[in-house]
Amino acid sequence: MERDVFKNELKSKEHEWKSERISLKAERDAFKSERDILKSEREVYKSERDILKAERDVFKSERDMFKVERDAFKSEREIFKAEKDVFKSERDIFKAERDVFRSERDILKDEKDAFKIERDSLLMENT
What gap in Å lies between CA 111 and CA 107, rounded to an integer? Predict the structure, then answer.
């Protein structure tokens, strides 16, 4: 009888341990599943982060291209300003040359008038 009680207690303990083992296995599997879910979420976040980094790099590249284009336009503007200044200088030189030619023309006219007056006075003296 004691032996039967002992066997029943042993079977009861075995059954309890098996149940506990099954519970622990189920708990372990639940933790593994949760871990796998967290790993998957982490991978998703890493992928999203990588996508955001790539987008940021694209925006930086576009910004750099716009800066290069802006600098090119600034350089072109400076070149056009320099060309405008050259044209203004050439215009001023042409104006100065024109004024010199006008002055020379006026001098020649004055000399011509002086010769005419001298000629007329010589003709008057001879007459």
Answer: 6
